[in-house]
Each structure stands twice: as structure tokens, then as C-alpha cells.
Amino acid sequence: AQTVTQSQPEMSVQEAETVTLSCTYDTSESDYYLFWYKQPPSRQMILVIRQEAYKQQNATENRFSVNFQKAAKSFSLKISDSQLGDAAMYFCAYRVYNFNKFYFGSGTKLNVKP
Amino acid sequence: DTGVSQNPRHKITKRGQNVTFRCDPISEHNRLYWYRQTLGQGPEFLTYFQNEAQLEKSRLLSDRFSAERPKGSFSTLEIQRTEQGDSAMYLCASSAERGALSNEQFFGPGTRLTVL
Asked: Which mean pLDDT values do the consecutive 10-residue runs of chain A (114 residues) have?
């Protein structure tokens, strides 16, 4: 069974500091994609960053980077220089290569303190 | 606006009534997905279309739920004989079949259903 686990229901970070959100997943597949999505309050979900499992290099997008540990089935998101606009629910998601079904974790609510 | 749109944004209905939601994907996207999201949870997959063909349905999609995408463009999700447990946010997403963005799903704002 494919499952995605986010063990941190809520986290807080001071503005300008760094925070890491955790995600683990369970799969028997070798080819898959991992995603982090951001859902601001009352706004639609947007993609933050994406990682292909076959790539060893960790993905980065400006202040957002991931730590992908394939053997450990771990996919954490690091947000550097946190901004007030980063406050949102963050969802980790997984998709098997050549399949279209996405599996989402239960989310982590990130609070950013000024 | 070229994003995914959903209508209505909010729907309040009485138990036992039928409701229908509409999703308009990004025009060049041939893949369309429906999800259900309850409070404090991530989206749960309901069903997936490629063009007009419904290729996958979740076990969550009971007989009271039906989805269509008749011309491969917009899609509708109908819930018959609504129950209070159907109260949730219903999300639609679309993606391209090919190209650099084929792995990315673009989400709509959702339709929030409240069943009284």
C-alpha cells in the first residue's frame, strides 16, 4: 500500500529563520515522484517543489529545498529565510511513475512569527 | 484567468438532496482529477479522467457519487442522496499529458459542501 506520513501536525518558525518539515512514505515501487504542495488559508493548493526518485540530487527552488533519502523513504522540505507569506498548510505527496493517482499526507500547518 | 475553476465555491444542502459540482480545467490539459478533503486532512483521490474516459475510481466513490467529462473539457461531480458525512471540500485538479509540466497537478479553489 502506498502511504504518506507527515508526523508534524503543526510547526512554528520565526521570520527569517529556517524550518524543516518531515515526510515519510511507504512504497514498493522504484520509480516515482515526490511533491510538496502549499495550501494557504482559503486559497488553492500550489506546487512548491518536485523530486524525481531516480535523481540523486536534491531539488531546490529558491528558498525551498528538499532532503530526499530514498533508502529511508524520507522526503523533508527545508524553508530558508522564512517569510510571513510562507504560513500555510504543507502537504507531501507521492505519485508512481506512469500512474496518475496522487497520495497525499495529512499536512503540516506552518506558522510564521514576525 | 487561465487556471482551474470550480463552481459553486460553496454549497449548503439538506441531507437527502442531490448536488452537482462543476470543474473547468486548464484548457490544454487532458487529465482531470477529483479529490475530497476533510478538515485537517490531505486530499483523498476520488477519480481520474484522461480526456473523456474515466480511467480510475477510488473505493471512496460510492454508488451515490458519479463523475462525468462528456467532451473531454469540463467535468461534473454529482452526489445523490447526500449524507452529513459527505461534508467536505471537493477539489479538482488538471495536468498535461506530456511535457515538462506533465507531473504537476494544478488545483482549483475547491467547492465546500455542507450537508445539514
From this structure: 89 97 92 93 89 91 96 96 96 86 93 96
Determine the distance in angstroms separating the CA of A106 from the nearest CA of chain B, rounded to an integer: 4
DSSP A70: T
Task: Grade residue B98 by pLDDT with cuts at 50, 70 and 90.
Answer: low
Q: How far apart are CA B73 and CA B70, in angstroms?
A: 7
Residue B45 to residue A101, Cβ atoms within 8 A: yes
CB contact under 8 A, A47 and B104: yes
Record the cell numbers describing residue B39, joined without a space: 478538515
Neighbours of A106 (CB within 10 A): 16
Return the pLDDT at B93: 94
Distance from C-alpha of B82 to C-alpha of A63, rounded to nearest angstrom: 44
Spatial contact of A78 and A67, defined as CB atoms under 8 Å apart: yes
**What is the tens place of the pLDDT at every residue in B47-92?**
999 999 998 888 878 899 999 999 889 999 999 999 999 999 999 9
CB atoms within 10 A of CB A100: 17
Inter-chain residue contact B42 with A91, CB threshold 8 Å: yes
- Do B56 and B48 form a contact (C-beta atoms < 8 A)? yes
Contact B116, B14 (CB under 8 A): yes
